[in-house]
Specification:
Blueprint: E1 6-11, H1 13-16, E2 17-21, E3 26-30, E4 41-45, E5 48-52, E6 58-62
Antiparallel strand pairs: 1-6, 2-5, 3-4
């Protein structure tokens, strides 16, 4: 951990951070992969994103390097 890097964030995440569900969920049927066992597999892709909407609601914890003597 480098000096002065933020290692954790604390605060009111409900008002300070928003998670967005993106449109465009895709479903892929995997017939060939499991055909030997007589099964069918499915692969689902879903996109999400997030952003800080109120930076004053969150606070970062920084590490301060100390020298050993």
């Amino acid at each position: 951990i480098a000096d002065n890097n933020v290692i954790a964030v604390f605060g009111d995440f409900r008002s300070g951070y928003t998670i967005y569900d993106r449109l465009g969920t895709t479903l892929q049927r995997l017939d060939e992969l499991y055909s030997v066992q007589g099964m069918v597999g499915f692969k689902i892709h879903s996109r999400v994103g997030g952003a800080v909407v109120r930076s004053d609601a969150l606070c970062g914890l920084k590490i301060k390097a100390t020298t050993g003597t």
